[in-house]
Design a protein that fits this description.
Length: 342
């Protein structure tokens, strides 16, 4: 059978239609006149200038994609007026004020989990977008890399500059960015509140970083919808919950009633180590799921991993950063949690 050749002009026409369709699909992700307030990311790294470097890249990436950002002067004035000390989360009241006073449609928040240029450069970021109109998390992601992650044959491709590595990680972080929430079957989705993770490791802020990373994994799950952490923090203050990792059933019921959640996660960072010399990075996380409506312990899990656990052969598959190891652990825990019968 003879195969007919397709004329060149038809191929070009088909390509043009594909480009137009892709452009239309992309435009649908950027509603007209949508204004986003980009909060300075919380800094959990040892580099004090890390947030400034990261925020510059984030803002540039967002503007290049067609989003209108609330200018820094108005944002800083608002944060000062409202006495906002922590910009890693937002309360329902603050989101409403941003919408009413500054016409903000969504708030982008995040954390710099790692930012180091010593030895093997390392950058780790977490972020999420909260819609101001209904206080819903509509996007969340985590990205991390070290300079050696890009090494190919004969050591070619290693990134030795942390600023260049930061650009790569920001690109990965925002590569999936969307203002349209994922379509989940509402009848089979459980709404989850994540309490601040207790930190038993020797690394400062490991608990906070783990809390945000767990929220990202819940967001990506088909079975769960995380409640914005800022309102949970607000409820913790109101209910006078003092001990991280612990809560009584009286307060469990109060949180369920106030936030309208089905479950509450209590987590602990048992170990968190960046690894030195021949020792690989290592992390251990434990988590418990409380059935908030029926006030009972529903499930618990504990996972420990090192960066060498994923090696396939030679160095292939090695994980070189503690936050990437933690990200793998979170995927495992949430995957196990999805199998729980309520």
């Amino acid at each position: 059978m003879k195969i007919k050749k397709i004329p060149l002009y038809l191929l070009l026409l088909t390509l043009c239609f594909a480009v137009v369709a892709a452009s239309a699909a992309y435009s649908a992700q950027v509603p007209q006149n949508m204004r986003i307030a980009v909060f300075p990311f919380e800094n959990f790294s040892e580099e004090k200038n890390a947030p400034a470097n990261v925020m510059r890249l984030v803002a540039q990436k967002m503007r290049n994609r067609g989003f209108e950002l609330l200018d820094e002067e108005n944002l800083n004035a608002f944060l000062l007026k409202e006495r906002v000390r922590c910009t890693g989360y937002v309360s329902l009241e603050l989101a409403r004020k941003l919408k009413e006073e500054l016409r903000v449609d969504a708030i982008l928040m995040g954390s710099v989990n790692a930012f180091s240029n010593a030895g093997n450069p390392h950058v780790g970021l977490s972020a999420r977008l909260v819609r101001a109109s209904d206080f819903r998390i509509v996007w969340a992601n985590h990205a991390a890399a070290t300079g050696e992650d890009s090494v190919g044959l004969l050591g070619l491709g290693k990134i030795e500059d942390v600023e260049r590595l930061a650009r790569e990680v920001v690109d990965e972080l925002l590569g999936s960015f969307s203002v349209i929430p994922p379509d989940k079957e509402s009848e089979s989705v459980y709404r989850i509140a994540v309490m601040p993770f207790q930190n038993r490791s020797k690394v400062r802020n490991a608990g906070k970083a783990a809390t945000y990373m767990f929220i990202v994994k819940l967001f990506k799950s088909e079975r769960f919808e995380p409640f914005e952490f800022g309102e949970i923090r607000h409820l913790i203050v109101d209910l006078r919950v003092r001990d991280k990792g612990e809560i009584d059933y009286e307060r469990t019921g109060a949180i369920s009633k106030s936030a309208g959640v089905d479950g509450i996660i209590l987590g602990t960072v048992e170990e968190y180590s960046a690894g030195t010399g021949p020792n690989p990075p290592e992390a251990a996380i434990s988590a418990r799921l409380l059935d908030a409506r029926n006030e009972r312990l529903l499930w618990s899990d504990s996972v420990r991993r090192t960066g060498d656990d994923s090696i396939l052969m030679l160095d292939w598959g090695r994980i070189r950063s503690a936050d990437s190891v933690t990200d793998e652990i979170m995927s495992k825990i949430v995957g196990n949690m999805e199998k729980v019968r309520w």
